[in-house]
Automatic annotation (TrEMBL):
Pfam families for the chain: NADHdh (PF00146)
GO BP annotations, alphabetical order: aerobic respiration
Transmembrane stretches, start-end: 16-38, 86-108, 120-140, 160-179, 191-212, 282-303, 315-341
GO annotations of cellular component type: membrane
Official protein name in the record: NADH-quinone oxidoreductase subunit NuoH
HAMAP family xrefs: NDH1_NuoH (MF_01350)
Cell wall biogenesis/degradation listed as a keyword: no
GO molecular function terms listed in the Swiss-Prot or TrEMBL record: NADH dehydrogenase activity
Keyword Disulfide bond recorded: no
Keywords per UniProt: Membrane, Oxidoreductase, Transmembrane, Transmembrane helix
EC number of the protein: 1.6.5.11
Subcellular location: Membrane
Membrane topology annotation: Multi-pass membrane protein
């Protein structure tokens, strides 16, 4: 019993709980399956794709997900002869794992924090910039012309969408005068949600997230009709499965950040009282934050079925010529809001 109690205490220790269980590897893996399933079902319904609709209808198509997982696990991992083997092998693994790294700075509750940080917003935003570098590395290490083109596209888009996202985050940080997620959520509980305080910053960040995670109409890096699968063309088996999962993991992490900054975080968890500290202060706030982020993710998945893909020049023109300007405008809005209301964090 002592060993079991020790294991339970270890699993409930915030850093381990966050990275392993919720919202870490286990929860993210389950969410990944749900998002892929939802994307297939929605696309099948809207675009009249009979395969996703008719496969194991009594189980809502769940058998196809199991079959795909088994296929990825049992397929041979083929490493091209001309590939740079070490970066080729390590890039998708590192990108998938590091895609979840910002979670260490994202609170799911004011009372249950992985690592307390006064600059958690800044740290989480900085950590989100690492996976794109590994995507570029995967394309370069594959030594394939389609992979190199896909990596080059990622580099172009990275500069565009990260500028939009970071400026949008800076706008709401300026309005709240804090770099702490917890304080930002507390201010939203007292005044109003960030999406109402600065809707321009919220809209710009949403579009930036779709660009960052290759959601339609910005699925340009892996455009199948043009560059096969972009940076991931030479990958097979479970390595390709990891490559597929990178964008979903990053989408969820970005949506967690968006939820805390613009959608009130765990609000209105404070209005719920059961008399249990674990339920009121940990489980309920965590469930609210996760639900908001999942709903956002499902909306972005839905976009795949109703929008066509932009060309690379169209996406870059929109990123720098329009959304970058909108993000700068959100800074002006935050300055005006702060001057009028006179908030002090």
């Amino acid at each position: 019993m002592g060993v079991i109690a020790t294991l339970i205490d270890l699993l409930m220790w915030p850093p381990v709980f966050y990275l392993v269980i919720f919202p870490g590897f286990i929860f993210t893996f389950v969410l990944l399956i749900i998002l892929i399933w939802a994307e297939r079902k929605v696309a099948g319904r809207i675009q009249m794709r009979y395969g996703p609709l008719e496969i194991s209808p009594r189980l809502a198509g769940a058998l196809q997900l199991v079959a795909d997982l088994l296929r990825y696990l049992t397929q041979e991992i083929i490493i091209p002869r001309r590939a740079d083997r070490f970066p080729y092998f390590i890039a998708p693994i590192a990108a998938f794992v590091l895609g979840m790294l910002p979670i260490v700075a994202i609170p799911f509750s004011p009372h249950y924090y992985p690592i307390p940080m006064n600059d958690s917003i800044l740290i989480a935003a900085a950590l989100t910039t690492i996976p794109p570098l590994l995507t570029i590395l995967a394309g370069w290490a594959s030594n394939n012309k389609f992979s190199v083109i896909g990596g080059a596209r990622e580099s172009y888009l990275t500069a565009a969408y990260e500028a939009v996202i970071l400026i949008s985050i800076a706008s709401i940080v300026l309005a709240y005068s804090t770099l702490d997620f917890t304080k930002a959520v507390m201010l939203q509980e007292q005044i109003t949600w960030g999406i109402l305080l600065n809707p321009i910053a919220a809209l710009a960040m949403l579009v930036g997230i779709m660009m960052a995670t290759s959601r339609f109409p910005f699925e340009i890096v892996e455009a199948e009709p043009e560059v096969v699968m972009g940076p991931y063309t030479e990958y097979s088996g479970i390595m390709y499965g990891l490559c597929m999962g990178i964008s979903y993991v990053r989408m969820f992490v970005y949506n967690l950040i968006f939820t805390l900054l613009f959608l009130g975080g765990w609000h209105p968890a404070g209005l719920i009282s059961t008399g249990s500290f674990v339920v009121d202060s940990i489980l309920v706030p965590g469930a609210i934050v996760a639900t908001k982020a999942i709903v956002l993710s499902l909306v972005m998945v839905f976009a795949r079925s109703v929008y066509g893909r932009y060309r690379i020049d169209q996406a870059l023109a929109a990123g720098w010529g329009f959304w970058f300007v909108i993000a700068l405008l959100s800074l002006v809005v935050s300055i005006g809001v702060k001057a009028i209301i006179g908030w002090r964090a």
